[in-house]
Amino acid sequence: MTSTVNGILLVDKEKGPTSHDIVDRVRRLFSVKQVGHSGTLDPFATGLLVIGVGKATRLLEYLQHDTKVYKVKFKLGVITDTFDITGQVMEENPVEVSEIEILEAVKSFVGTYKQVPPAYSAKKYQGKKLYELAREGKIINLPPREVTIYDIYDIKIALPYVEFTTKVSSGTYIRSLCMDIGYKLGCGATAVELRRISVGKFSVDDAINIPKIDRNENVDEIREKAIRSLIPIEQVLDFPKVEVNNVERIFNGVQPTVNDIIEIEDFEKDDLIQIYFQGKLIALAKAERSSSFINTLKKQSRNERIAKLIKVFKESTM
Prior knowledge:
Elements: E1 7-13, H1 19-30, E2 35-37, E3 46-53, E4 68-76, E5 78-80, E6 89-92, H2 99-107, E7 111-115, E8 124-125, E9 128-129, H3 130-135, E10 145-158, E11 161-168, H4 174-185, E12 189-199, E13 202-203, H5 219-229, E14 241-244, H6 247-251, E15 261-264, E16 272-277, E17 280-287, H7 291-299, E18 307-312
Parallel strand pairs: 3-12, 14-16
Antiparallel strand pairs: 1-3, 2-3, 4-11, 4-12, 5-6, 7-10, 8-9, 10-11, 12-13, 14-15, 16-17, 17-18
């Protein structure tokens, strides 16, 4: 297997391994060094990991800010140091709240609020992950950050447990959300089950499992299934597209001009755009003119520069 393997792989992570463990499995499966993910999942969590392979790793930064949907189950009356069931129990409190109070508390978090990241998380402080510092006995309390809870639905209550599905902004910690709900109810809470079911337009329904390769005899079968499941880089981003007539100019770093254009979709100045040649994504660029203005320039036969190249995917078309 060579580094010509490129694309986005949707993986359904099981409980236990870290996100890095899954990246390492994919790296070994394809024998490719360039592998990364668009957002961490806690070891106790399951669900969708968006994995970039080969040149697709260069697209991951554009997926990190996508909205995410989670299913979570938490237990009221228990507080742990990690805000989930894997941590050390710090407090146990009686749960003396009604279902109506729980529903009101849960729904009150729909909207934007300032959330404190858990001390045991993959978020970094001075270049080191918080959970690494926590394991060294250094608990870093970061300032709250603004997050948005777009929706909370399918709420189920079976005291002391509560379940719901939620759509949230990037950077939202579901463990912290559960804990905040518990604090509002006066008894605390800790997450016991967490599953990510979507990231942007990608769903866990389309994901595959990647087992530990060294313990599985069907490596070739797993690899072939993974290759068939790879999403081409042309299907990953939703930025407006510009079709050009000369690939070599782009590959040589020449900034695109009006005369390079065959077809364009609508966009505004400063928008990110995808540059295509014969149906293949060859570059990402920042528009220096709006599409309507470019059309005017074309009518006037003014061959001006229209965008600044950000990333060129030369090997993706080889």
